[in-house]
Amino acid sequence: MGTKHLGTPAETRALDTYIKLRRAVNALGLVEGKVMREAGLTESQFGALEALLHLGPLCQRQLAGKVLKSAGNMTTVIDNLEKRGLVERRRDGGDRRIVTVHLTDGGDTLVREVFPRFADVLVGALSVLKAKEQEQLAALCRRLGTAGA
């Protein structure tokens, strides 16, 4: 169902697109959320663990940028992961102002266990689109996401 707003054609089109995009994101979030709940992780916590797994240790600001969260929110995410023994903060030997976040062995094990399930769920959810359609959607989302940057 699209918008009931009776505006200009550009407004109606933009609102309809936005509604459909939000519904698609919400639907994927429900599927993804099940995997996260089973692992006892929030979306932000999983995003941080996944970034550290694939990119290696990062400073908190870099990590926040990768998972699209504010630095303040990332502090809370890292605090909670640290309490669970999944990450640790380490001060840089050369510049003690720099603190990098590292996966612990437990964090590495958990994210390596959860990530394949996460990927499988996304493959299944997105399988309603053909490969070419997925590529087109990815390109459109990238364009939309970088338009305001």
Question: Can you walk through the features of this model?
Answer:
This protein has 149 residues and is mainly alpha-helical. The chain has a domain of 103 residues: Winged helix-like DNA-binding domain superfamily/Winged helix DNA-binding domain (Arc Repressor Mutant, subunit A, Orthogonal Bundle), CATH 1.10.10.10. The protein has 6 helices and 3 strands. Strands 1-3-2 form a 3-stranded antiparallel β-sheet. A hairpin with a 7-residue loop joins strand 2 and strand 3. Helix 1 packs across helix 5, helix 2 crosses helix 5 and helix 3 crosses helix 4. It starts with 8 loop residues before the first helix and ends with a helix.
Question: What is this structure's SSE topology?
Answer:
Blueprint: H1 9-39, H2 43-55, E1 58-59, H3 60-66, H4 71-83, E2 87-91, E3 99-103, H5 105-126, H6 131-147
Helix pairs in contact: 1-5, 2-5, 3-4
Biggest sheet details: 3 strands, antiparallel
Roughly how much helix do the residues carry, as a percent range? Answer: 55-70%
Low-confidence stretches: none
Q: Helix tally?
A: 6
* Span between termini: 30 Å
Mean pLDDT: 90
CATH superfamily heading of the domain at 42-144: Winged helix-like DNA-binding domain superfamily/Winged helix DNA-binding domain
